[in-house]
């Protein structure tokens, strides 16, 4: 009889340990995915000054837009705690706002033939476009990892273990309202 109770206790402890390992693996995968986004955001942030320097030669009257991009870049580059869902959400929102303004800048640059034909600007825009594609992939990976973590951390009995281990649900990446808004092509064509 004692062997049976010991065996049952061993199975329960083993199951809890395996569940804890899976939770930690999913938490680390989500944090790794968030780090992947940050790496790509850093590449984007590094590419933005080059685009701005080149554009500044041609666009003296677009200073407000360039200042907005610079301010949002600084905001997005601030340090945050990846274990704090509210800080992660604020970081992702700042990145989305920056993406919206840079897209606006790129659209504005399209209206200037001398910039569209500038080889250095074309290379800078291509580098930026490549980084954006990598950011999109990193966001998809992040959302998939967060889905796995949140599902397990919110499902019984793993949620009890997650609460004891201090594992909380992470926010999903969501596009900013600016990015979801309809585009008014007239605003870009009437220059």
Output the radius of gyration. 23 Å
Which structural class should the secondary elements be placed in?
mainly alpha
Number of discrete helical segments: 8
According to DSSP, the number of beta strands is 0
Distance separating the two termini = 86 Å
- What is the succession of H and E elements? HHHHHHHH
Residue share in helix = over 70%
How is the biggest beta sheet arranged? none
Briefly characterize the structure.
With 191 residues, the protein is mainly alpha-helical. 78% of the residues lie in helices and 0% in strands.
List the helices and strands and how they pair.
Elements (H helix, E strand, L loop, with lengths): L1 H55 L6 H14 L8 H25 L3 H4 L2 H35 L4 H8 L11 H4 L5 H4 L2
Helix pairs in contact: 1-2, 1-5, 1-6, 2-3
Please provide a written account of the structure.
By secondary structure, the chain is mainly alpha-helical. Helix content is 78%, strand content 0%. It is built from eight helices and no strands. Helix 1 runs antiparallel to helix 2, helix 1 packs antiparallel against helix 5 (119-153) and helix 2 runs antiparallel to helix 3. It is elongated, with a radius of gyration of 23 Å. It starts with a helix and ends with a helix. The relative contact order is 0.15. The model has no long low-confidence stretch (mean pLDDT 84).
What labels describe this entry?
elongated; single chain; 191 residues; 0% strand; mainly alpha
